[in-house]
């Protein structure tokens, strides 16, 4: 008989007895705090429809989660065979049992990875699975999960409450009607909030840019024939998002480049984009200018501004052509912040009314640039470890590289940044464990007393994200 699959209750804690004991005490005080989720990619439709289900085990844990299928793809498992929807019309696997079988046969690939930690927690603690997943037991475990997912307590709204989520922010295009958010608010779910993500129209090289602009024009009930019309639509939509509960915006770009274009320059570039006649560096310069404009708008309307920088998106062009964006092929680049961000910070960085949260994939920039910037400018906060660094070691490195210079209170707490709804609690749990382990090390090293460590654990786990994202 197979050994019962259990998770170490002291996982993520250091092995030294004294540190582990204190880490456990700190963790016990914060582990049941409500979850604050200020940035993520869960669809509001999942919660907007009271009859929605989480689907099959494959639809819940594999098909939407690029953390999962990118690892399998790296070992030669085709995305078609994992049921990932194609954009080019190619046929993909439609049998969720076969998808699950392939996943189970390759489950060993996730050993010693954060994804493996999350998946084990979901399977063991959420679904009560008692055997480690393998190809041999894949189908009985599938049956167990399928049976549970059909029960009322596994409806998304019920799980939302079970997870003790205090607030969840989605990520939404500027042309989105936000109908699900409005419906949820009418039903008393005002704690599910939109986030304004304008990349599809600000990035002049975005796939389908003209179509996206047309969607924006349609929802604004106007023609967007000039740069000024464009700005006015963005401002109007931000106001609508804020009225519907949004407290933040989010933008992604390859670099942190910011610049201020003159009105004629911005109009000229935008006009060339409308005609499909962009010149070299037009998109780069326009994106840098729009960071300035988004900061200006945030000062005016109070929305928190987020920048996700340094991801070379859709690096695998063949995969992008077949399956589209967000398929695990976003690769980090080295990122320079001090000079690139200087124009924006010169204009707005000294104004504490602006809250600018920076996310980066270049860990070298944490101690070299980001922590000094956040430790000086009143407007700047550092987001938590993102994408590849949302891991035990990545979090530990973040604490070690950032806090000495920036201080904890110039960071933005934690966000789970997930598309996989069921993984939200475990992602927060890993952060809380690592934070408590780090704090325990400071106490035992004489750098912190226990009272301060307990306060900081509460801030890391819960209070800081609420404060910085204005979710009080």
List the helices and strands and how they pair.
Blueprint: H1 17-30, E1 35-37, H2 44-48, H3 57-61, H4 66-74, H5 96-105, H6 114-126, H7 138-149, H8 156-162, E2 165-169, H9 179-186, E3 192-193, H10 199-202, H11 209-220, H12 227-243, E4 248-253, H13 263-275, H14 282-301, E5 304-309, E6 311-312, H15 317-323, E7 331-332, H16 342-348, E8 356-360, H17 364-374, E9 380-382, H18 392-406, H19 424-444, H20 450-468
Parallel strand pairs: 1-2, 2-3, 4-5, 5-8, 8-9
Antiparallel strand pairs: 6-7
Helix pairs in contact: 1-19, 1-20, 14-16, 17-18, 18-19, 19-20
Which key features would you list for this structure?
alpha/beta, uronate isomerase, domain 2, chain A, 2 domains, single chain, TIM Barrel, three-stranded parallel sheet, 472 residues
Describe what you observe in this structure.
This protein has 472 residues and is an alpha/beta fold. The chain has two domains: 17-52 and 155-468, TIM Barrel; 53-153, uronate isomerase, domain 2, chain A (Orthogonal Bundle). 49% of the residues lie in helices and 7% in strands. It is built from 20 helices and nine strands. The chain has helices at residues 17-30, 44-48, 57-61, 66-74, 96-105, 114-126, 138-149, 156-162, 179-186, 199-202, 209-220, 227-243, 263-275, 282-301, 317-323, 342-348, 364-374, 392-406, 424-444, 450-468, and strands spanning 35-37, 165-169, 192-193, 248-253, 304-309, 311-312, 331-332, 356-360, 380-382. α9 (179-186) links the parallel β2 (165-169) and β3 (192-193). α17 runs parallel beside α18. The longest helix has 21 residues, at 424-444. The N and C termini lie far apart (51 Å). The relative contact order is 0.14. The mean pLDDT is 97.
